[in-house]
């Protein structure tokens, strides 16, 4: 059985789906332009690259076809790069503040929405250690006032409201008796109506809409003997766990996003390691999107 909520609560397994990046396609255009200008166009064919917090290799996918240098992507989470990328590059599970590479291993370190999750002082130290004396560094970081962070804050509010409403526990309890107490099935509509009154969210909430659609379909399937109550309880438990994981991810994303002052401190810290810096406040239609930072030394 497929339910609308499954696609809404997939972030805990996001990279396992093979997704390339966390931005919507239209928002990624300024990002791709920055990467093309400050990374792809400057990259020499045989230069080595470390992609920090690679996700599923969105940056590595932009490499020219004739690039022949050693490339490795590292990430602290489980990732699922495409088969094509796995054949061309190396991937390792690794903490960005404790990189298992010798000194001066790379010509480039690149990172898209990943470096800000690393301990700042240790992360800078490790980047500088594994880079050659003549090297380049490209960082794309979340921005606190960006469209993405505002959207994340909205999703956080919606997720917390849903958890606080008791919707999951009420639906779970209804399923507990559905297999044995046939008379209780008549209360399905009453249950959904009462739950709706307790959730105070905007009517255009996509998460709430998907959840209510999914619950209505699932409980109706139980009512019509297409799904057993016990099986439905497991599905509801999975949805709740996924929502909790999604909330945790969003909380981290909002917390690590850089303010203007944070970004200036980061740039200055890297400059102190002998790098020259070029920073770009990336925007989409005049609205803040991300911090783009390019560094070179030697």
TrEMBL record:
It holds the Pfam family Methyltransf_25. It comes from the Bacteria. The keyword Transcription regulation does not apply. One of its GO terms (molecular function) is 2-methoxy-6-polyprenyl-1,4-benzoquinol methyltransferase activity. SUPFAM superfamilies: S-adenosyl-L-methionine-dependent methyltransferases (SSF53335). One of its GO terms (biological process) is methylation. Keywords: Methyltransferase, Transferase, Ubiquinone. Residues 49-132 form the Methyltransferase domain. This is Ubiquinone/menaquinone biosynthesis C-methylase UbiE.
């Amino acid at each position: 059985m497929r339910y609308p909520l499954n696609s809404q609560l997939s972030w805990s397994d996001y990279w396992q789906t093979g997704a390339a990046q966390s931005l919507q396609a239209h928002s990624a255009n300024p990002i791709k332009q920055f990467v093309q200008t400050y990374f792809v166009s400057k990259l020499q064919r045989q230069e080595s690259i470390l992609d920090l917090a690679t996700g599923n290799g969105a940056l590595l996918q932009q490499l020219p076809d004739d690039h022949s240098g050693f490339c490795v992507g590292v990430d602290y989470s489980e990732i699922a790069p495409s088969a094509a990328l796995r054949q061309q590059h190396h991937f390792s599970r690794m903490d960005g503040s404790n990189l298992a590479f010798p000194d001066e291993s790379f010509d480039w370190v690149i990172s898209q929405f990943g470096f800000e999750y690393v301990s700042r002082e240790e992360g800078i130290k490790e980047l500088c250690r594994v880079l050659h004396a003549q090297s380049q560094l490209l960082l794309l970081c979340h921005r606190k006032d960006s469209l993405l962070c505002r959207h994340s804050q909205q999703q956080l509010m919606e997720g917390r409201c849903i958890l606080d409403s008791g919707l999951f526990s009420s639906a779970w309890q209804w399923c507990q008796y559905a297999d044995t107490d046939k008379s209780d099935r008549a209360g399905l509509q009453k249950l959904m109506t009462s739950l709706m009154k307790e959730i105070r969210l905007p009517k255009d909430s996509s998460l709430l809409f998907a959840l209510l659609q999914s619950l209505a379909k699932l409980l109706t399937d139980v009512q019509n003997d297409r799904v057993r109550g016990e099986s439905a309880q497991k599905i509801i438990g999975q949805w709740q766990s996924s929502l909790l994981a999604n909330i945790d991810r969003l909380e981290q994303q909002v917390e690590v996003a850089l303010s203007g002052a944070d970004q200036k401190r980061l740039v200055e810290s890297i400059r102190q390691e002998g790098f020259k810096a070029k920073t770009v406040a990336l925007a989409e239609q005049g609205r803040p999107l991300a911090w783009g930072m390019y560094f070179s030394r030697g």
